[in-house]
């Protein structure tokens, strides 16, 4: 029976996470714009505040004051709900991610994780499946061909890559004998799974890129073909929700990847929380770097890559891991 | 192995962008820093004068005809000595695309492009430049040239009296 203080602690953790992740996402937008600019030998947004640091605030004001349009013939409720469906699963995923070692405070042990589900991996997989609804229904409800095409592409892409993502996590679960993210982190106290499972990590990373709809897998919102893809018809704060949702996704999935393969908050010398943040930010950086480098795949190449290359490799990897685990003394 | 080749290609791309990440940007923060455009940069148009201070333009309409967006208009006038001039001359800079064809077409080097590129205004009518706004006191890029010292009707010297000119042919003398 959790007492009042436990509930308060959980609420405090939730609040902190929400604030930190949301502001991080807003600043990630700025970081991405500046980094892409540097990659392209430009300056990037540097007007609002010192080095453009207040740009997220300006963007927020802009988005809030824009008119919230709803196209004629759009499915009203789905259209209004879709952006939330895209952003909320990303935030919920963070509930199972352990972001630091337990802290002792006033005689209590506070785990730096909102809940330690014993099926954390499945919870994460389930939520990332739910994220499909946001973009598909958003694209469908807009009553626009571009949005619909984007939605359909997103649906096909996310469902396919979900599979690779799941398969690439199986070796991790096999190594840990547990679905709990806490146990997975604990199992990596000395050696991160990245060294045991480099192939699974690569597969997981590629499917992460696809899950976040980032280049080279940004075909659901391919600007050059589909205007803006599934969120073509959105404006104002709803567009902002889709937009921030994408960056929330990056941060959260970066955290998840750090948990599964980079040893979570484990690391020498520095405090655990710092290690975790550094790993997440490193992931964000790699995401942005990839976006600055790779061109977009075609829809058929995407499917080809997923079903003919990544899935067989992931299955083979599972077999090899199983074989190794059985012959291991 | 195409996989190896593909991985190598991707790594090459990543390495290239990595290097550019730390390079100094090529662009400059504009209103604080300004680049000096090269002297032949094509921006705000001026009407120049000849070395003696007279207007060069002879209102021949060639610039106006050459202009692809039809933004030059004028009205030709004539002085007592037969010298043509523009009664009014107007360039609509809100339409001009700074292609430089007018300057190329001008036989008297009157109309010339300058590197002054900062032409913008919230009031579109202020981009309509009249002759007074266009006419400058100098010769622009051709400090020596005076059309009437090489050709044309006898404004400076009598017809055919310029050093590099032949006297006018007596067409009647050609009759066999
Ligand atoms: S620069 Fe080109 S567009 Fe502008 S006035 Fe001259 S001919 Fe016309
Ligand atoms: S082409 Fe030159 S001389 Fe002729 S009207 Fe234009 S500016 Fe005047």
What distinguishing features does this structure have?
heterodimer, A: 329 residues, mainly alpha, B: two-stranded antiparallel ribbon, 5 strands, binds iron/sulfur cluster
Please describe what this structure looks like.
The complex is a heterodimer of chains A (329) and B (176). Chain A is mainly α. In chain A, α2 packs across α10, α3 runs antiparallel to α4 and α10 crosses α11. The longest helix of chain A has 36 residues. Chain A is globular and about 65 Å long. The mean pLDDT of chain A is 85. With 176 residues, chain B is α+β, with helices and mostly antiparallel strands. Helices cover 19% and strands 14% of the residues of chain B. Chain B has 4 helices and 5 strands; from the N terminus they run αβαββαββα. Chain B is elongated and about 85 Å long. The N and C termini of chain B lie far apart (87 Å). The mean pLDDT of chain B is 87. At the A-B interface, α1 and α11 of A face α1 of B. The structure holds iron/sulfur cluster (2 copies). The site of one iron/sulfur cluster (SF4) has 15 residues of chain B, from α3. The site of one iron/sulfur cluster has 15 residues of chain B, from α3.
């Amino acid at each position: 029976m959790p007492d009042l203080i436990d509930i308060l602690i959980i609420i405090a953790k939730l609040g902190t996470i929400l604030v930190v992740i949301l502001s991080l996402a807003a600043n990630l937008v700025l970081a991405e714009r500046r980094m892409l600019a540097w990659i392209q030998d430009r300056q990037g947004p540097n007007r609002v505040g010192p080095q453009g640091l207040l740009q997220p605030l300006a963007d927020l004001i802009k988005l809030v004051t824009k008119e919230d349009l709803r196209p004629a013939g759009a499915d009203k409720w789905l259209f209004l709900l879709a952006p939330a469906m895209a952003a909320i699963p990303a935030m919920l995923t963070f509930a199972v991610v352990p972001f630091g070692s337990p802290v002792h405070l006033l005689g209590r042990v506070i785990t730096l994780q909102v809940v330690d589900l014993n099926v954390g991996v499945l919870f994460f997989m389930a939520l990332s499946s739910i994220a499909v609804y946001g973009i598909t229904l958003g694209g469908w409800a807009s009553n626009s061909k571009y949005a619909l095409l984007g939605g359909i592409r997103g649906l096909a892409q996310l469902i396919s890559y979900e599979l690779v993502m799941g398969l690439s996590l199986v070796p991790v679960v096999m190594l840990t004998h547990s679905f709990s993210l806490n146990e997975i982190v604990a199992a990596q106290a000395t050696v991160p799974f990245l060294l045991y499972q480099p192939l699974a990590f690569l597969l997981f990373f590629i499917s992460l890129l696809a899950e976040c709809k980032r280049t080279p897998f940004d075909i659901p919102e391919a600007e050059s073909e589909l205007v803006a893809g599934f969120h073509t018809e959105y404006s104002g704060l709803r567009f902002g929700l889709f937009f921030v949702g994408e960056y929330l996704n990056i941060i959260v999935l970066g955290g998840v990847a750090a948990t599964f393969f980079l040893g979570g908050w484990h690391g020498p010398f520095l405090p655990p929380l710092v290690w975790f943040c550094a790993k997440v930010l490193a992931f964000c950086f790699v995401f942005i770097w990839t976006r600055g480098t790779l061109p977009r795949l075609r829809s058929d190449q995407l499917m080809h890559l997923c079903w003919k290359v990544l899935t067989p490799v992931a299955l083979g990897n599972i077999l090899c891991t199983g074989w190794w685990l059985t012959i291991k003394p | 192995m195409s996989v190896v080749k593909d991985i190598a290609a991707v790594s090459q791309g990543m390495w290239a962008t990595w290097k550019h990440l730390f390079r100094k940007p090529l662009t400059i923060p504009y209103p604080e820093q300004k680049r000096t455009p090269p002297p032949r940069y094509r921006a705000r148009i001026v009407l120049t004068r000849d070395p003696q201070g007279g207007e060069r333009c002879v209102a021949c309409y060639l610039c106006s005809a050459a202009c692809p967006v039809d933004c030059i208009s004028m009205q030709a006038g004539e002085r007592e000595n037969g010298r043509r001039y523009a009664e009014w001359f107007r360039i609509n800079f809100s339409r001009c695309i700074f292609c430089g064809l007018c300057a190329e077409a001008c036989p008297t080097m009157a109309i010339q492009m300058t590197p002054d590129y900062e032409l913008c205004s919230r009031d579109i009518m202020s981009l309509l430049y009249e002759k007074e706004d266009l006419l400058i006191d100098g010769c622009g890029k051709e400090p020596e040239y005076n059309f009437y010292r090489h050709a044309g009707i006898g404004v400076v010297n009598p017809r055919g009296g310029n050093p590099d000119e032949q006297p006018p042919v007596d067409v009647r003398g050609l009759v066999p």
